[in-house]
Every structure is written in structure tokens, then in C-alpha cells.
TrEMBL record:
Signal peptide: none annotated. SMART domains: TGc. The lineage of its organism: Bacteria, Pseudomonadati, Pseudomonadota, Betaproteobacteria, Rhodocyclales. This is Transglutaminase-like domain-containing protein. Residues 174-239 form the Transglutaminase-like domain.
């Protein structure tokens, strides 16, 4: 078991005082059998009121309503979590799912159907050509081999770029540019899986690596695929790895643009564009006495 401290600061500065409309925060990690929250603090300015709720997929969301105008917005989240070992390769597929294509169990199909539907339908022709060139459309093909090859293909043959602007590139854009951010790679991986009939979803969260300790961490994004037997399993096409306990999920979604850490709007003079800074630190703590 490891204990991690996650400090996440988001700050906006506006040229003049503005009226902040309700904001939604998705910055609280998702608890599970391998992740427990020990403590959590949330500090927000200007003056506000906060209401927590769970969305339709079970993500923890804080809705923030503001009580005064301000020329800045600051959100500080600090969470201490316990992470337990969950070896990523120790899982077995049901026999009927060992090769693609396969049909999900009848009782699971209604729940999984939304995660099999493309959210970029106009990109399907380009996806077909790309997957065909990779040899991933041959039938049958071993499910695990397909997913590993797709994951490593993106990690090894696309250029990673940090993109500060909001939004997610479409799969067609990522294929055309041959580059993207972690959220762009996750979107491409997900759409490719859905094209091949596999239920998949977008995951936003944090990544704990040795070089994060100095305070240069960022939020991260990856994909999960629903596999009969093990359930939702994570694949990180930025690194080419199957996710493990270094990946800390915060929110899951059908659409890659549905779960930004901080979202909201403001009312102010026309043409105002706020300045934004984000600081994330993920550091390991000592064991409890």
C-alpha cells in the first residue's frame, strides 16, 4: 500500500471584476477496492457555496456558486489517498471474449451500448483505413493482442505534445497531425475500440511518477475498455502501458470532453479572456504509524 498526497491548484485572472457563474469541479479521486481517500480539503476564492453530488456515472462533482464579483478565481484541492496493489496484468478474459469480434452478455448490452457508440462518426472512414494498415481488422484476432498493439502503436508512433488550449482533438485530427496530448491519444484509442465493437470510456485523473515529486505533474487522461471477466481495464496510449496503481482516476465519461477538472463561465465586458495557471503535485507519503 502507498500513501499519496495530491495538491491541485487552478487559478484564473480576469482583466476586470466579473460575475462568476456556477462552476463544476471534478477533482476528487474515485474510490474503489484499490483506492481509499484518507482526507480531502477544498479551498476556493472568492466567497462561495459548494454542493457535492454524484453524476450519472458516479463521478464526484462539486458545484460552486459564487457570492461576489471578483477579478480572480482560485481553486485548491488537496487529497491524501491510500493506493493498494492491483497488478495490471493479473486478469483473465471469459473464454467467449478471448478473440474479437465477440458479443457482450445479453444482460450487459443495454448498459454498455452507449460506450460502443462513436462520438466522432465522421472520422470512421479514416479510422478504418488506419486500423486496416495496422492489421487490426483481420478476423478473428486475439482481444488482448489487439488492445496491446493499439496502445503501443499510439505511444510509439505519435508525437506527444502538451496542449494548453481547452478541448480534445478529433481522431481524424490526431491521425492527420500524427501528434497530440494525452487526452487526444485517449480519444483516438477509444474511438478505435468502439469501431471494433469494444465498449470503452474516457478517464481523467492524475499520474504518479518519480519526476512528479518536484511539483511538475499534470492532470492526465487515458482509456478504459470493458472486458468480460476483469471488467473495466485501463490502457494508457501516451505511455503504451496497461494502467496500474500509479494512475489515479478522478472521472469517467462516454465523451472525452465531458469531464474537465474545472468548468464554468463568467459574465463581464466583451472580449475578456482570463489568464490561467494550473499546478499539480503528486507526492508519496510515509506509512501511517
Amino acid at each position: 500500500m502507498r500513501r499519496l498526497n495530491i495538491a491541485h491548484v487552478t487559478e484564473y485572472w480576469y482583466p476586470t471584476p466579473v460575475t462568476l457563474l456556477p462552476h463544476r469541479l471534478r477533482i476528487r479521486p474515485l474510490e474503489s477496492h484499490s483506492l481509499r481517500i484518507e482526507s480531502s480539503t477544498l479551498e476556493i476564492s472568492p466567497a462561495n457555496s459548494v454542493r457535492w453530488y454524484q453524476d450519472v456515472l458516479g463521478n464526484s462533482v462539486a458545484q460552486v456558486n459564487f457570492n461576489e464579483m471578483s477579478s480572480s478565481l482560485r481553486v485548491l484541492s488537496e487529497v491524501i489517498i491510500s493506493v493498494y496493489e492491483d497488478p495490471p496484468l493479473e486478469f483473465l478474459l471469459e473464454n467467449f471474449a478471448s478473440n474479437c469480434p465477440f458479443d457482450y452478455a445479453i444482460d450487459e448490452q443495454p448498459d454498455l451500448a452507449p460506450f460502443q457508440q462513436s462520438v466522432y462518426p465522421s472520422d470512421r472512414a479514416m479510422l478504418h483505413g488506419w486500423l486496416g494498415r495496422l492489421g487490426l481488422l483481420r478476423r478473428p484476432i486475439e482481444t488482448f493482442t489487439l488492445l496491446l498493439q493499439l496502445n503501443c502503436e499510439i505511444a510509439n508512433n505519435f508525437s506527444y505534445q502538451i496542449r494548453e488550449e481547452e478541448g480534445v482533438q478529433s481522431p481524424a485530427q490526431t491521425l492527420s497531425l500524427n501528434s497530440g496530448s494525452c487526452r487526444d491519444f485517449a480519444a483516438l484509442f477509444i474511438e478505435a475500440c468502439r469501431y471494433m465493437g469494444l465498449a470503452s470510456r474516457f478517464v481523467s485523473g492524475y499520474l504518479h511518477m518519480a519526476d512528479n515529486e518536484a511539483g511538475n505533474a499534470t492532470t492526465h487522461a487515458w482509456a478504459e475498455v470493458y472486458l468480460p471477466g476483469p471488467g473495466w481495464k485501463g490502457f494508457d496510449p501516451t505511455s503504451g502501458l496497461i494502467t496500474g496503481n500509479q494512475h489515479i482516476p478522478v472521472a469517467v465519461a462516454r465523451h472525452p470532453e465531458a469531464v474537465p477538472p474545472v468548468s464554468g463561465s463568467f459574465v463581464g465586458p466583451a472580449g475578456q479572456r482570463p489568464a490561467l495557471t494550473v499546478s499539480v503535485r503528486v507526492s508519496q507519503l510515509g506509512a501511517l504509524p
